[in-house]
Design a protein that fits this description.
9 strands; 6 helices; two-stranded antiparallel ribbon; Glutaredoxin; seven-stranded mixed sheet; alpha+beta
């Protein structure tokens, strides 16, 4: 079942990219006590993710923070080392990278997709959500192959 507005974020491990290396966190703990704009991409270094999705949140970071967002985070079914390299190459300072290497989070929220036909295996659907103190307040899931409702610009207009 897909997570919905009003649902609580489930507790599964994610790996947060830090300056000191990977740091495993429980998703429920990560989202507790603050407002997080989370966006998910099917894969680091993939075309739309690298050309539009991540750059949009980098460019709109200050606007999101001004609207009450405490932290902006990106998740993908990649390992923490790939996520760190992608953030560095994209100049994504101020965006927290949350690696979901085993797709545990994507599965737990019902947004895992089968990208096997592209040689990518299980991945996350493309989406953006606003989470306040562990509760989903907004959820914008893209249709396959689209990039409209999960953009930073769209999330800004919805807040």
């Amino acid at each position: 079942m897909t997570i919905s507005i009003g649902d609580t974020i489930p507790s599964v491990p994610l790996v947060k990219v830090t300056a000191d290396g990977p740091d495993t966190v429980q998703s429920q703990d990560y989202f507790a006590g603050r407002t997080v704009a989370l966006f998910a991409v099917p894969g680091a270094f993939t075309p739309t993710c690298s050309a539009k999705h991540l750059p949009g949140f980098v460019e709109r970071r200050d606007e999101l923070l001004a609207k009450g967002v405490d932290e902006i985070a990106c998740t993908a079914v990649n390992d923490a080392f790939v996520m760190a390299a992608w953030a560095k190459s994209a100049g994504a300072e101020g965006i927290t990278m949350l690696a979901d290497g085993n797709a545990a989070f994507a599965d737990a929220i019902g947004l895992a997709i089968d990208a096997s036909r592209f040689g990518m295996g299980t991945r996350s659907a493309r989406y953006a959500m606003l989470v306040e103190d562990g509760v989903v307040k907004q959820l914008h899931v893209e249709q396959p192959g689209e990039f409209k409702v999960s953009s930073a610009e769209h999330l800004l207009t919805a807040i």
